[in-house]
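ok here's Peptide/nickel transport system permease protein, seq below lol
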Amino acid sequence: MNSVLKIILQRLALGLLTLFIVSIVIFTAVNMLPGDFAEAILGQGATPEAVASIRRDLGLDQHPIVRYFDWLSGALRGDLGNSFAQANFASFVGDDSGVRVSVAQQIAPRFANTMFLAGVTAAIAVPFAVMLGILAALYRNSVFDKVANISTLTSISSPEFFLAYVLILFLAVLNPVLPSLSNIYEGMGFGERLQKTMLPALTLTLVVTAHMMRMTRAAIINLLASPYIEMARLKGIKPMRVIIKHALPNALAPIINVVALNLAYLITGVVVVEVVFVYPGIGQLFVDSVKIRDIPVVQACCLIFAAAYILLNLTADILSILSNPRLRHPK
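and the structure came out like this:
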């Protein structure tokens, strides 16, 4: 158990180091964008005094290294700064009547919406993909297996926006079963929210199911030639029971990895789907903030995406370690 704990601590330390490096890349990339942020906020008719005042108020006149560590220390405390776009600009030029909106206040409801979308998608995609992979392994080289592989390969090869528009055509236009736009708002009932989220959730399900199904199928087929599987078959155990009780538990490590990676995609890769369905999530907020150059929000969204991806990768590593009996019970 000490060796397992040591490996887990090493993974956590590596994850923190990766997140630190990614934060440097995010800050550097955003600050390398052409143009002056203060002039972009105030417009072309801004006076030099107003530009200098807002640059001083925002700390843009400081050295980039100082600004980076101020941003990083604030992020560690949960303070991601103030949104440029949502503020009353009078507050930036010395007028106390101005109102500033923190980035955390702006991101929190959007992030909750994205997590709801990811949760609905995961609840549909994970059991569906695993069961589809089990059936494809059980009936490998059959018509069902070939159709499943062709379908998943087509799904992997199709971009998200294409699948989204196909679903809109068939489920919202030709057969108006689900709404084409996801108008989510605060206080909406669970049933109505679920209905409006279903179409983007089905789009993401088509994208992530393919990877999980193919990995489940490959991992199980790889174990079917093992001696203990042959022994179970010789005892007369039903093929489905052999796969579920004997093969699947030993194939969990690669399956957990691919499931965690696809769950990370559900949080970090929803930008295109949220834009297509106008879903009020963090991906839509990120695109809108890039358009209006709301730099604190862009940096915060990128940091959240990176942290979620790294965290879920760490979770996959740790669960893979814990699912390995040779690591849990060393000789």
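fwiw The mean pLDDT is 81. kinda neat tbh
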